[in-house]
Amino acid sequence: MYRKILITTDGSAVSSKTACAGVAFAEQMKAEVLVLFVAPEYQYPIYVEIIPPSYPSEDEYRAAMLRAGQEHTQDVVDSCAKRGVPCEAVTAFAESAALKIVDVAEKHRCDLIFMGSHGRSGWGQLLLGSVTNKVLSHAKTPVLVHRLIKEPGSK
Fold this sequence. Notes:
Layout: E1 4-8, H1 13-29, E2 32-40, H2 58-83, E3 87-94, H3 97-107, E4 112-117, H4 123-128, H5 130-138, E5 143-147
Parallel strand pairs: 1-2, 1-4, 2-3, 4-5
C-alpha cells in the first residue's frame, strides 16, 4: 500500500517514540523510510549593528545543525537497519518546519507522512500541535498522526 514513508523527528523523546512507531509501521507495510529533521534557518542578530565575535557564522551554524540533524535521525536509521527497512536521512533548513515537511514529502515522492501528536487539548494542542496541524492543512500526501497517550518517562 505505502512504498515510501516520511517520518519526522526533532530529537525530542516524544518524536523518538513516534519515530519508533513509524519504523514498525513501515516494516509492516514493507515500505522504505525517509527520516527528516528540519532545522531553523540562520538568523542574523537584528538587535546590534555589528555581529558579536562569539556569534556563529552562517557556515558554522549550518555545520552545527547538520551535525544535530545527523544525531537526531541516527536512532531512526539504526532502528530501520535492525528491522531490515531501507532508510535515508535528510536534514533540511526552513523558516516553517510544517511547510518544509510537506515540500520534502512531495519532492521525494513519499506516499505517507508519519508524525506525532502530543495528545493534548485546549491551549496545549494549540501551542504544541501547531506543526502537525499545519502539515495536515497543507499536505496533499496522506498524513498518519501517531498520538502518544502519555509523555515518555511519565507514569
